[in-house]
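#structure-requests
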Amino acid sequence: MTTVTIQVPENVKGKLSALVKELGGEIISMSSDKVISKKTKVLNEIKQGLNEVKAIREGKSKPYSMSDLFDGK
């Protein structure tokens, strides 16, 4: 199966859910904009951090020193 993340207006949420179920799909999660925006922000920050780790491991970026971390660089 494929997972798709979409944003739809509140008034079509029920119709879309019914269509997905009719087509044999499954609704994994439904969230409001407020929850999604917080979740998206946290996930983007995690993704950015992991990309920095990957760049350091590949030698494309210099690792941070403890003083850099404490100074907020």
